[in-house]
Amino acid sequence: MTAIEYAHIALVEDDQSLATLTSDFLTREGYRVTHYAEGASALKHIPEAKPDCVLLDIMLPGLDGIELCRQLRSRYSGPVIFLTAKGEALDEILGLEVGGDAYLAKPIEPRRLLAHLRAQLRRTATPTTTETESTSVFRIDEQRECIYLNDDPLSLSNPEYRLLQLLLGSEQRVINRDDIMLAVRGIEHDGISRTVDILISDLRKKLPDADWIKTIRGKGYLWEGPQ
Questions:
Q1: CATH superfamily of 4-124
Q2: How far is C-alpha 71 from the geometric centre of its chain's CA atoms?
Q3: pTM of the complete model
Q4: What residue segments make up the domains of the chain, in order of their start?
Q5: Looking at residue 29, what is its pLDDT?
Q6: Position 13 pLDDT exceeds 90
């Protein structure tokens, strides 16, 4: 059993039967699970408990998942995976805007949930020196799905990691919206979704210089930062 499988997971879910099924499954897989049935309780305890990942239902009574994530982000930097019965694109966009790292629509096949959970935990795990790709300023640890700037890890969501990885490897090539959507979502841009705009905006906020990502009007984005 790996260190990742001993991780502490916070499950925020008001459906008791679903919460029990999910907790039992993750416990069998080696995780320690703390269940919160209400957003207010989760908001109070998660910053202190510092779980390795939060599984967060959107449709919560009182403080819903979107607002809970928004308020948590000032006090909790770990990965957040949204779980929701609503499969609408707007909910996914809102989830990304408030700091979510992944978005899964119910019903969720347990092994699919496990795969996403492990991916997020690998991204935030302590880095190793194996299977890494180095640049002069940035270092990309592909095994951990983490990018370092001057040896300091950047706090990136999984989509932000994939976007920055794409830009760093662009070799002065303009990256269009289809390139970005294929890299972060595995689909082409539909011409309507604002997912790319949100990702670019969020990533710029996490870089020392927002101008490292240059907008090429009508074409896409060009990386002008250090390699």
A1: Response regulator (3.40.50.2300)
A2: 16
A3: 0.57
A4: 4-124, 132-223
A5: 87
A6: yes
